[in-house]
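[recover] target loaded
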Protein backbone atom coordinates (compact mmCIF):
# COMPACT_ATOMS: atom_id res chain seq x y z
CA UNK A 1 0.00 0.00 0.00
CA UNK A 2 1.34 3.44 -0.98
CA UNK A 3 1.14 6.50 1.25
CA UNK A 4 0.07 9.82 -0.31
CA UNK A 5 1.22 13.00 1.42
CA UNK A 6 0.00 16.46 0.58
CA UNK A 7 -0.21 19.78 2.31
CA UNK A 8 -2.10 22.95 1.70
CA UNK A 9 -0.80 26.49 1.38
CA UNK A 10 2.26 26.91 3.65
CA UNK A 11 2.54 23.18 4.31
CA UNK A 12 2.45 22.14 0.64
CA UNK A 13 6.14 22.48 -0.22
CA UNK A 14 7.63 21.11 3.04
CA UNK A 15 5.25 18.15 2.79
CA UNK A 16 6.24 17.51 -0.83
CA UNK A 17 9.93 17.51 0.16
CA UNK A 18 9.22 15.12 3.06
CA UNK A 19 7.37 12.76 0.71
CA UNK A 20 10.33 12.82 -1.69
CA UNK A 21 12.80 11.99 1.10
CA UNK A 22 10.59 9.18 2.45
CA UNK A 23 9.71 7.67 -0.91
CA UNK A 24 6.00 8.41 -0.43
CA UNK A 25 3.69 9.57 -3.19
CA UNK A 26 2.87 13.28 -3.29
CA UNK A 27 0.55 15.62 -5.10
CA UNK A 28 0.63 19.32 -5.84
CA UNK A 29 -1.66 21.63 -7.76
CA UNK A 30 -3.77 24.74 -7.61
CA UNK A 31 -6.19 22.96 -5.28
CA UNK A 32 -3.39 22.76 -2.72
CA UNK A 33 -1.25 25.86 -3.15
CA UNK A 34 -1.18 28.97 -5.34
CA UNK A 35 2.45 29.98 -4.74
CA UNK A 36 5.75 28.55 -5.88
CA UNK A 37 8.38 27.46 -3.34
CA UNK A 38 10.01 30.92 -3.51
CA UNK A 39 6.67 32.58 -2.65
CA UNK A 40 5.97 33.93 -6.14
CA UNK A 41 2.43 33.42 -7.43
CA UNK A 42 2.11 30.42 -9.75
CA UNK A 43 0.89 31.31 -13.24
CA UNK A 44 -0.55 27.85 -13.88
CA UNK A 45 -0.94 24.35 -12.56
CA UNK A 46 1.80 23.30 -15.02
CA UNK A 47 4.19 25.76 -13.38
CA UNK A 48 3.41 24.23 -9.96
CA UNK A 49 4.06 20.73 -11.30
CA UNK A 50 7.37 21.79 -12.86
CA UNK A 51 8.43 23.37 -9.56
CA UNK A 52 7.39 20.21 -7.71
CA UNK A 53 9.52 18.05 -10.00
CA UNK A 54 12.52 20.27 -9.26
CA UNK A 55 11.86 20.15 -5.51
CA UNK A 56 11.61 16.35 -5.65
CA UNK A 57 14.86 16.18 -7.63
CA UNK A 58 16.62 18.35 -5.06
CA UNK A 59 15.21 16.40 -2.10
CA UNK A 60 16.37 13.14 -3.69
CA UNK A 61 19.83 14.53 -4.37
CA UNK A 62 20.08 15.73 -0.77
CA UNK A 63 19.21 12.32 0.64
CA UNK A 64 21.93 10.46 -1.21
CA UNK A 65 19.52 8.93 -3.73
CA UNK A 66 20.60 8.74 -7.35
Amino acid sequence: MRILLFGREGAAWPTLRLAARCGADARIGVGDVLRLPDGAPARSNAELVAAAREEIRRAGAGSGAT
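[recover] notes: The chain is about 45% helix and 5% strand.
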